[in-house]
Specification:
six-stranded parallel beta sheet; 26% helix; globular
Length: 261
């Protein structure tokens, strides 16, 4: 695993999404191998979308996958679509198909949000998720665990998780998880973690691919306002890395691209 520096923010570029996913998967596996040797509990927040699914499939295919003590790994999601449990629109469904079904991980360490057919509304689902996170909070610290890795996708509008530009959710700092209604991207009803929870992560790794992400990546790296480009405000305590393909990197100045590839 490459050395990490405090508050590192860097851009790593590969030719296409497949190569990006392989790079991220290697970093995830390497980090998990180290951390699960050091302690009993490791927390990861997963993401959905095309990039998230590609990364999970690459982790599942990694030759060191079964060397990880998955019983020590707790899986969460940075956001979830509030749809029925079996709906493929739900981030949990492709995640189980791509990775979870193929690894020896206990059901108790896979923390999914409640689905729309679970008999509760979206506000109750958000509260339940916040309470579940609080059960793993450090004594005397934030009411949630600090994720060791948070994987995030970024939309062409700059959103991550379900924190969209110019929406009230992006400014909430006193909640752990929120209900989102009338999302500008379907499905319209969701549960999302808030910015303070995500930015309490040790490592925030953002995955972007495609020419439609080039402009927003350039804005995020240039320091655009968080309310206009939410991805500009995503930051890990230890490191923040944008893993991007060549198409998404088209507007990134060469000096911002890490040479340690």
């Amino acid at each position: 695993m490459a050395a990490e520096r405090d508050n590192e923010r860097s851009v790593l570029v590969r030719a296409d999404l497949s190569a990006v996913a392989d790079l991220v998967a290697g970093r995830v596996i390497g980090t998990l191998a180290q951390l699960t040797e050091e302690r009993d509990t490791v927390h990861i927040a997963l993401t959905g979308g095309r990039g998230g699914a590609a990364v999970l499939a690459a982790i599942a295919a990694h030759p060191w996958r079964d060397n990880i003590n998955w019983a020590r790994v707790h899986l969460w999601w940075s956001d979830e679509r509030f749809v029925p449990a079996a709906d493929p629109e739900r981030n949990e469904v492709p995640a189980r198909a791509a990775l979870i079904a193929s690894i020896d991980i206990p059901a108790r360490t896979v923390h999914a949000t409640s689905a729309s057919d679970a008999g509760i509304d979206v506000d109750a689902a958000a509260d339940a998720y916040a309470n579940e996170l609080a059960g793993f909070a450090p004594v005397g610290g934030d009411p949630w665990p600090s994720f060791d890795i948070t994987l995030l996708g970024v939309g062409p509008d700059g959103h991550y998780a379900s924190l969209f530009p110019e929406r009230p959710e992006i400014n909430v700092t006193d909640r752990t998880a929120l209900a989102v209604r009338d999302s500008p991207k379907p499905p319209p009803t969701r549960v999302t973690l808030t910015r303070p929870v995500i930015n309490a992560s040790q490592r925030v790794w953002l995955v972007l691919s495609g020419a439609d992400k080039a402009a927003v990546l350039g804005l995020a790296l240039a320091g655009a306002s968080y309310s206009h480009v939410p991805a500009s405000g995503a930051k890990g305590r230890l490191s923040t890395v944008f893993f991007v393909d060549e198409a998404a990197a088209a507007e990134v100045p060469l000096e911002l691209i890490a040479q340690d590839q």
